[in-house]
């Protein structure tokens, strides 16, 4: 039995979120548009092999970003916790200030050099004024500017007897806001891993006009096979937008074994790109054309 002990009642956590006008007016989003530029554009998910060596992780991430851009990707996503092994015992050691840490510097340079949008997976963030840690995604435009930051809202606390015990809230504090950002291709939503289990976040992104929701994430060997793909297809079909997940590659010598299987799902709930658990880059062209294939 999965304990969802830190589940927020969304009406409480987002009670001040401004839902404008009649929420159901555009339920099927007939007017949501990719920009004129983007009948279709290529995205990439880098299923990065993450080690305990932070500098190595940063160099590897940058090289893979340059490789994905050479292959035509215009928007590139990294996995949850790409600069550090995923684990409560590691977060404090690898945590950085945002925007003054080395991970932000590396990703900003990579975005500028590759001239791509980058959704920088996540890193453990230290807020200097409070000492609190967050699991945070940073986003960059093709000029290398930091254009958005998402702190994971729903922390992953789980206890499946005999299978997996993990309590992210032991060291990480939750974020309290939703994150959507504009690109020249259209508006994009971002959330992190366990956030995908809370459909309201994706619904609000769709209502706000997002064309896709990206979830850097690291599911595990218990819940991965059960729910990873199902959740993505559900969020995509519910909201009629693309859903993209990006996991670290699996490392069986680590304390937390990621499921891998980074995946891209179209607005009809169909998987258009996926993989197994090794280090790899997956690509897909996303845009308005998907519905002509139905
Ligand atoms: N890193 C995470 O939030 C993992 C979430 C997960 O595995 C789940 O089942 O949910």
From TrEMBL:
Cross-referenced InterPro entries: C-N_Hydrolase, C-N_Hydrolase_sf, Nit1/2_C-N_Hydrolase, UPF0012_CS
One GO MF term: omega-amidase activity
PROSITE patterns assigned: CN_HYDROLASE, UPF0012
UniProt key word Signal: no
Any Pfam family the entry gives: CN_hydrolase
Record SUPFAM superfamilies: Carbon-nitrogen hydrolase
Biological process (GO), any one: glutamine metabolic process
Gene3D superfamilies membership: Carbon-nitrogen hydrolase
A Gene Ontology cellular-component term: mitochondrion
Domain CN hydrolase: 41-288
Keywords: Hydrolase
Protein family (similarity comment): Belongs to the carbon-nitrogen hydrolase superfamily. NIT1/NIT2 family.
Protein name: Carbon-nitrogen hydrolase
């Amino acid at each position: 039995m999965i304990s969802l002990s830190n589940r927020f009642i969304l009406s409480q956590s987002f009670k001040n979120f401004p839902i404008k006008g009649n929420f159901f007016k555009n339920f099927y989003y007939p007017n949501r548009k990719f920009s004129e530029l983007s009948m279709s554009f290529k995205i990439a998910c880098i299923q990065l092999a993450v080690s305990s060596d932070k500098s190595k992780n940063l160099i590897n991430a940058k090289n893979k970003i340059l490789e994905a851009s050479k292959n035509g990707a215009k928007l590139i996503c990294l996995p949850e916790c790409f600069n550090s092994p995923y684990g409560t015992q590691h977060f404090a050691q690898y945590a950085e200030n945002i925007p003054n840490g080395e991970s932000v510097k590396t990703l900003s340079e990579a975005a500028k050099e590759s001239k791509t949008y980058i959704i920088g997976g996540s890193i453990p963030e230290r807020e200097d004024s409070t000492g609190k840690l967050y699991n945070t995604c940073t986003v960059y435009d093709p000029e290398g500017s930091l254009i958005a930051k998402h702190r994971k809202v729903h922390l992953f606390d789980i206890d499946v007897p005999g299978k997996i015990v993990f309590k992210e809230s032991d060291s990480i504090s939750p974020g309290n806001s939703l994150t959507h950002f504009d690109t020249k291709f259209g508006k994009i939503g971002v959330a992190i891993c366990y956030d995908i289990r809370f459909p309201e976040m994706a619904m609000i992104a769709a209502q706000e006009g997002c064309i896709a929701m990206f979830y850097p994430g690291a599911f595990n060997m218990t819940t991965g096979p059960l729910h990873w793909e199902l959740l993505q297809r559900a969020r995509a079909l519910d909201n009629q937008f693309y859903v993209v997940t990006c996991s670290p590659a699996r490392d069986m010598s680590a304390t937390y074994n990621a499921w891998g299987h980074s995946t891209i799902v179209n607005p009809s709930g169909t998987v258009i790109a996926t993989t197994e658990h090794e280090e790899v880059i997956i690509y897909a062209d996303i845009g308005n054309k998907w519905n002509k294939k139905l």
